């Protein structure tokens, strides 16, 4: 199935300064749009890249990249509005690809992981887009003062690339009238279910001169020009005792056993250790700080709630999760037969590839409380990376 990338670069926004549209401003010796273009042109899952832009401006700014492989990138003239430009690009791709990723040229630091997440979601549905959960409090303002608050539950900050089955999004655009916030709005009105995939705080949109400076700092760190990449490690440790029951929850998998684990939540000792490892890398305390056991809301809670919160907190602060390693310490139940399911479950919750998640087990040679089969312990290490 052929996949195309549609880079929207026809805007005329000048708020970033410099007297030219922001997508043609210099960023690390290249136009902003060139960085976005390179991310898709060099991706193994992208077969064709179309840039929607003013042809003269695009050829002048992207000449070096376009000249490298003229068959891989082409330019389509944009329209007076963003929607007109996207529609022009979609029409140019009709019959040449089955899927399309629509990306704003003003988001120059899109990562391969973000692109991979959208591509993977398109295997199972007609549309997908990356987003970051809103973690800040939201206020309503009036006359320069706080006039109220708004719940942030379920709110997500939209990013691009927004991916679609090409025929479906083209039909949605052709049926749409007027402007829209983004292509997801048009897709949803057409009845398409849009999956939300993990976003990245570094994948922000350049609008102002301050945004351009921030992007330059990020790019410098990526290129090693202003110090080493920022890497953090966190450790987690948790213990739960056995009690009555016929199963235990370990790393998100229900494992049959003659006893259960006791705890305020579902007592998933492996997932708790991984969650605390992420909080530790963030220097953000532990599960008890964010989900106190004194709060009845968390009694019997499923532990994926805690793990997702830690992952969202990391990504909202600009961190990428490098890997997570969990070791379960117990005599029984046997972990080996379930380890692959545990890895896959944890990876799905965290939005990671399974090869970035390790789940293994050891015994304590019949020593201590785990050796006496009084409970299970877990240790975890998590790596966070921020370019």
UniProtKB/TrEMBL annotation:
Give the record's family classification.
Belongs to the IspF family.
The site annotation (Positions MEP for the nucleophilic attack) covers: 152, 205
Quick one: a GO biological-process term for this protein?
Answer: isopentenyl diphosphate biosynthetic process, methylerythritol 4-phosphate pathway
**Domain of life according to the entry:** Bacteria
Q: Which residues take part in binding a divalent metal cation?
A: 238, 240, 272
According to the record, the signal peptide region is none
Q: In which pathway does it act?
A: Isoprenoid biosynthesis; isopentenyl diphosphate biosynthesis via DXP pathway; isopentenyl diphosphate from 1-deoxy-D-xylulose 5-phosphate: step 2/6; Isoprenoid biosynthesis; isopentenyl diphosphate biosynthesis via DXP pathway; isopentenyl diphosphate from 1-deoxy-D-xylulose 5-phosphate: step 4/6
Q: Which residues form the 2-C-methyl-D-erythritol 2,4-cyclodiphosphate synthase domain?
A: 232-384
Q: Name one Pfam family in it.
A: IspD
Which EC number(s) does UniProt give? 2.7.7.60, 4.6.1.12
Q: Where is this region: 2-C-methyl-D-erythritol 4-phosphate cytidylyltransferase?
A: 1-231
Question: Region (2-C-methyl-D-erythritol 2,4-cyclodiphosphate synthase) spans which residues?
Answer: 232-387
Question: What reaction does this catalyse?
Answer: 4-CDP-2-C-methyl-D-erythritol 2-phosphate = 2-C-methyl-D-erythritol 2,4-cyclic diphosphate + CMP; 2-C-methyl-D-erythritol 4-phosphate + CTP + H(+) = 4-CDP-2-C-methyl-D-erythritol + diphosphate
User: What are the UniProt keywords, alphabetically?
Assistant: Isoprene biosynthesis, Lyase, Metal-binding, Multifunctional enzyme, Nucleotidyltransferase, Transferase
Q: Which cofactor does it need?
A: a divalent metal cation
Q: What is this protein called?
A: Bifunctional enzyme IspD/IspF
PANTHER family under this entry?
2-C-METHYL-D-ERYTHRITOL 2,4-CYCLODIPHOSPHATE SYNTHASE, CHLOROPLASTIC
The reply to whether Metal-binding figures as a keyword in the UniProt entry is yes
Q: Which annotated residues bind 4-CDP-2-C-methyl-D-erythritol 2-phosphate?
A: 238-240, 264-265, 286-288, 362-365, 369, 372
Please indicate which residues carry the site annotation Transition state stabilizer: 15, 22, 264, 363
Source species of the chain:
Wenxinia saemankumensis
- Matches recorded under SUPFAM superfamilies: IpsF-like (SSF69765), Nucleotide-diphospho-sugar transferases (SSF53448)
Q: State the protein's purpose.
A: Bifunctional enzyme that catalyzes the formation of 4-diphosphocytidyl-2-C-methyl-D-erythritol from CTP and 2-C-methyl-D-erythritol 4-phosphate (MEP) (IspD), and catalyzes the conversion of 4-diphosphocytidyl-2-C-methyl-D-erythritol 2-phosphate (CDP-ME2P) to 2-C-methyl-D-erythritol 2,4-cyclodiphosphate (ME-CPP) with a corresponding release of cytidine 5-monophosphate (CMP) (IspF).
* Keyword Lyase among record annotations: yes
Which GO terms label this protein's molecular function in UniProt? 2-C-methyl-D-erythritol 2,4-cyclodiphosphate synthase activity; 2-C-methyl-D-erythritol 4-phosphate cytidylyltransferase activity; metal ion binding
Record InterPro entries: IspD, IspD/F, IspD/TarI, ISPD_synthase_CS, MECDP_synthase, MECDP_synthase_CS, MECDP_synthase_sf, Nucleotide-diphossugar_trans
């Amino acid at each position: 199935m052929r996949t195309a990338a549609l880079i929207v670069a026809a805007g005329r926004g000048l708020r970033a300064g410099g007297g030219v549209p922001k997508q043609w401003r210099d960023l690390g010796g290249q136009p902003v749009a060139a960085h976005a273009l390179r991310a898709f042109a060099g991706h193994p899952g992208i077969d064709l890249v179309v840039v929607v832009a003013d042809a003269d401006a695009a050829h002048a700014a992207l000449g070096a990249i376009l000249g490298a492989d003229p068959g891989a990138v082409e330019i389509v003239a944009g329209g007076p509005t963003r929607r007109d430009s996207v529609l022009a690009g979609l029409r140019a791709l009709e019959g040449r690809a089955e899927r399309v990723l629509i990306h704003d040229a003003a988001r120059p630091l899109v990562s391969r992981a973000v692109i991979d997440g959208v591509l993977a979601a398109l295997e199972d549905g007609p549309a997908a887009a990356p987003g970051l959960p809103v973690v800040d409090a939201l206020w309503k303002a009036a006359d320069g003062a706080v006039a109220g608050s708004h719940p942030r539950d379920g709110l997500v900050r939209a990013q691009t690339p927004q991916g679609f089955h090409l025929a479906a999004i083209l039909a949605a655009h052709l049926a749409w009238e007027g402007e829209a916030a983004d292509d997801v709005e048009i897709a949803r009105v057409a009845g398409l279910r849009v999956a939300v995939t993990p976003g990245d705080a570094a994948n922000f949109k350049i609008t102002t001169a301050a945004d351009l400076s921030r992007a330059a700092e990020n790019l410098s760190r990526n290129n090693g020009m202003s110090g080493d990449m920022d890497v953090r490690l966190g450790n987690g440790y948790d213990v739960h005792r056995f009690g009555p029951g016929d199963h235990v929850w370990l790393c998100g998998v229900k494992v049959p056993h003659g006893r259960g684990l006791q705890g305020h939540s579902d007592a998933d000792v492996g997932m708790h250790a991984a969650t605390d490892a992420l909080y530790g890398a963030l220097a953000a305390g532990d599960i008890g700080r964010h989900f106190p056991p004194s709060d009845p809301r968390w009694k019997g809670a499923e532990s994926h709630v805690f793990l997702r919160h830690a992952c969202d907190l990391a990504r909202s602060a600009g961190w990428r999760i490098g890997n997570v390693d969990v070791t379960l310490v117990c005599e029984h139940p046997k972990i080996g037969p379930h380890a692959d399911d545990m890895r896959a479950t944890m990876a799905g919750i965290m939005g990671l590839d399974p090869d970035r998640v390790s789940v293994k087990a050891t015994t304590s040679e019949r020593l201590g409380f785990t050796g006496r089969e009084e409970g299970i312990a877990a240790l975890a290490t998590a790596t966070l990376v921020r370019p």
